[in-house]
Structures are given as C-alpha cells and as structure tokens.
Structures
1.
Amino acid sequence: MIVEVCANSLESALVAEQAGADRIELCSELAVGGLTPSYGLLKAVKEQVSIPVHVLIRPRSGDFTYSDDELKMMLTDIELCVELGFDGIVSGVLLNDFSLDIDRTQKLKNATGDLKFTFHRAFDWVKNPLEALGRLDAMQINYILSSGQQKSAPLGIDLLSELKKKSKSVQIMPGSGVNAGNVDAFMSKGFSAVHLSGTALIKTIPNKPLISMNSEGFLSDDHLAITQLENINAVVAKVK
C-alpha cells in the first residue's frame, strides 16, 4: 500500500521521507484544505526530497469553480511543476452546480503531460459520485482523493469501497482522518494507497501575540473575499 503524506512545508516533507512515506502531496495552508505551494517551497523540496512529490494546484481557498484568469494561473503553475521535474499534479475543477467541469479538468490533465494526475477532494462535493467516477475514468485520471463524501475517510469507507469496485482504472485513495488506528480497515478492503498529513500543532513562540492575524470571517466554502470598487474609491477620493 502506498502511503502518501500531505506535507505543508519543507520540514514536513523531510519528516515524511524519514518516516518511510512512499510519496508526498506538497501544498501550503492545510487549514483551508491546501493551496498551491510557493516557488521557494517547490524548489527547496525538489532539491532536498528524493521520494516522489505530487504538487497541489489550487489557487485559492473556497469553492472549486474557477474563472478564466484563475485557470490560466493554474496552467502556469502546472507548467512550472513540469519544468522542475515533479512526479504528479493534484487538482480538479467543478461547475457551480457541483458537477465535474470536464472541459477545464481535461485542460489541467493535458497540461500535466506524462505526470500522474490526482483529482482532489473536490470530488467529495460532486452530486453523483459514481457518474463522476466514470467520467474521470474516461479521462485516464490516475487517482481520486476522497473521504467518501463524509467528514473523514473511515466514515465514508462504504462509498469509497463502492467506488473502488466500480472503477475501471483510476485508483481510489482514501484521505482525511486516516491514522495508525484505522488504516487496517483500508488495507482489509484492498485499497492500494492512503493519504494523511500526520500533523500536530507545535508551539513556535513562547507567548501568544496580543492580536491574532487569523481572520475567521474570511473563511467560507461558498463566499470569496474580493476587493470592492466602491470601498477603495471612497478612500482614494478622501486622500487624493
């Protein structure tokens, strides 16, 4: 069974390799489900990590329905990952009705070339997972990362098992809530790969800051924080 570790930093990637992981999914910002890592992180991991690395391509938090400009950025990021010699890409696009955006996902897949392609946990939002599986099978996607449309993969193991049974070629990779206490269940069901972060919060400074830089009001699955013209106009008009 392949053990894929979702690593959010160089340190996490190095620890995963040291621990015997088979592969890394590299990202940033686990708190929002992962975002595309910076060029600096990509370069450092490529230089210092020897096991295969798949890179998450997700330009922002929130939903998985992207504008034309966002898609261009995603394609540019994939081009960079191909140039740097990474082993795979993790991405995917939905329409705003929670169905697969076949056209845009295919464009991402085409840009990936010979690299492996994982359709990420946007799959857990699709309305008809078995239909989506068939479409991703036809696109020759390599992996689907999923919790079985539940809060954790152990809770979603029944759907995951059904997807595994119905899949023609794509490998179903359980992820979310996988740990040493429950991985046996996925082994017994015959899954070929599992995904986990294995993280813990480590204190980095001795005292808590006076104010927090985390803004919970910006975190939403169905809203985006976007600069508003009238808000900036009003300030510019005051000071200019």
2.
Amino acid sequence: MKHVIFGGDGFVGRHLAARLVKDGEEVVVCDIAKDSLPHYANCRFIKLDVTDKGQFSQVDIDADDMVYNLSAKMLSPLQIRAKRHEFFWPVNYYGTENIIEKMAASDASKLVHYTTDMVYGHTFTYPQTEEHPANPLGEYGLSKWKTEGLAAEWREKGMRISLFRPRLIIGPGRLGILSKLFKLVDYNLPVPMIGSGRNPYQFISVFDCAEAARLAWKSGVPNEAYNLGSDNPPPVRKLLGDLIKHAGSKSFLLPTPGWAVKRTLDLFDLINLPIMDPEQYLIADEMCILDCTKAKQQLGWTADYRDEDMLISAYDEYRGNLSAGHSTPSATSKPSATA
C-alpha cells in the first residue's frame, strides 16, 4: 500500500507527506510545483495539474492505496466577483472529480478530502457541529460544498471518504490576509475590528490538520465529515490585544459598527475593488466556532496548538522574513494550496 497525496507540495500536504515518510510509509506526491523539501529524498514526486484529466495517466494507483486530496484554490489572492467561479471551480470541484474518477478506474476506495468550514455560511446554531445547515456565501464555499455532494455519490458506490472542514489554517510559510494585520501593527496604526471584537476567532494549525488526515487513515477512513478547529478560542479583542502587546506596538483596537462595515465592503466588492472576500467579512462578527468533539471521539484527534500562540508565531515569522530581506509569504494561489 502507498499514500498518494494530490496537492502534496501544498500547505497541509507537505506536512502530511513528511510525517508519513518519517513513519516509513511509501508516499507519492502529486502537484504542479515542487519545493526543496527534505522528505523528497524518500518519496516520489509527480508533476501534475489536477484540472487536466490527461495528466492522471502518470499516476499509478492500486486498489489498496490511500489517497488524499489537498489540492484547492483559496480565497487569496482576492478575485473580483465576475472571476470567482472560473477561479475556484476548475481545481476545487472538477479537480476533485478527476481524482475520484481516477480512483474508481483503479478500484481504489479510500480517500481523505479537505473542504472548508465556509460550507456553513452564516451561524445558525452555536457552536457549529457537523450537522449545522450548509449555506455557502460565495463561490469558494459553494465549490467545496459541491465536492461533499460528489463524496456522497461515490460513498453509495462503495468508496470510503473522510471529509474535513477546517477553520482558517495557519502555520509556517503561510500568512495570507494576516500580513495586512501585521503591517498595521508594525506601523503603529489602529487595528479595526468588524463589530465589537467580543466574539471569539478560531484558527487551526497546519500540523493539527496533517495529523487529522493521518488519523483518518489509521481509523479506517470513516464515511464521515469532521470539523477541525482550536480549543477555547479567545475573543478577537484579546487575540489582537495580545499580539499588539507582544509586538511592542502603539496600535490600538478600533471597534466598528459591523453592519456599516459590511455594507461598505459590499459596495467595494460591487464595483470590483474588493478589500476582503464576502465569505470572510460577512461572518466576521458572528460566533463561528466549530465543535470538534466528533473528530476527538472517533479519530482520537486533538488540537495541540492555541490560537494566541499560532498568531504570535505567524507574526514572528513575518518579522523574521522582513529582517532577512525576504518578501513576506502569503497564501499561495497555485492549485496545490490547501483549503
């Protein structure tokens, strides 16, 4: 048996691949780009674009292989409204379809697939369990939600597919929208919050995500969906206040009327000058906290990293890159970027 990881050079994929290689497993990484990573000395890399069905002939998948789909287009870089469908769907939906069809042709039946917590949309119940109503607010969440429909269809045909819905994934090498926050802090500027900042904000570590994928394999690939988020996320004002204090900045937190900010951002989005994606700002002041009890009970998974520590670590990485003269890393836009 081997582990075939689509998007394996991306954010979560590289950590999963490294862990499996360390455990002595046979690993094949499929991606459109290849970085210089130590574990490539002990695994195979195949250059592959998941949107091109013809390229899948390069990949040998056996019936007992374990397959992981970590390929996705994410919310960064920002897209104007008219281009969002064509940006997200080729990789997120049709790429997933290509992977599953390749598995079916090879009689492979075990898949771990990452979607997103943005399938839920607005918060109707708190905290959000996996049974929370799904009502995506944009093309990104919708493209991911439709892949869950694909999974349901193929489960009926005998596949075992574990789905993961993570909150915002952070960790080394990926800053994304956080780089804008860190610039405000560095320049001692006010840090605006959408709303009062009394609602919690929840991250999830890239390391915890990789471990969840591994545990799904170890648990026999349950036909279930699992939330992934940190434990006990603090209120936004505490999270950001601790960051400002750590940075030694003179920035201060600026509460704003959430409804007014959202309508202003809606206007910028409407005139094709988006500042944030609607899927981000429309829920920014809501109690969007994932209940991860199911993953803990069924997979033996735990969230080992705290939100406060993750944010400060990301800021320190940002500062380290500036000191070294490097451009600050952002959420990659290549198809291997993890959702």
